[in-house]
Write a structure and sequence with these properties.
Elements: H1 4-13, H2 21-36, H3 56-61, H4 66-74, H5 88-101
Helix pairs in contact: 2-5, 4-5
């Protein structure tokens, strides 16, 4: 029974559709670099972003729950963060990318 929760969490982290996990991570990184890098440092070794927004690595190290990340990325944000209209696939890919940074 104690193995069920990690399995369910791993399955929830998988992107929807037929793409592989590595493809989802690559697409998520591309989306992050296009939309998020103005404020966030989006990966290890990148130096775009600023100190006002948490880096994606720091978000990943908090071990976020995939569903919570999807919910956050899919809702309107306060005035401190732009409200991008991301598709479900873009959100899934961003979640896959962020979670990959915590491994």
């Amino acid at each position: 029974m104690k193995f069920l929760l990690p399995l369910l969490l791993a399955l929830a982290a998988l992107p929807a559709g037929a793409q592989t996990q590595s493809e989802a991570v690559a697409q998520g990184r591309a989306t992050a670099e296009a939309w998020c890098a103005n404020c966030h440092v989006v990966g290890s070794g990148t130096r775009t972003g600023n100190d006002a927004a948490p880096s994606f690595v720091s978000i990943a190290r908090r071990q976020p729950e995939p569903t919570a990340l999807r919910t956050w990325l899919g809702q309107r944000h306060k005035e401190t963060m732009p409200n991008y209209e991301l598709s479900r696939a873009e959100i899934d890919n961003l979640v896959a990318y962020i979670l990959s940074l915590g491994r």
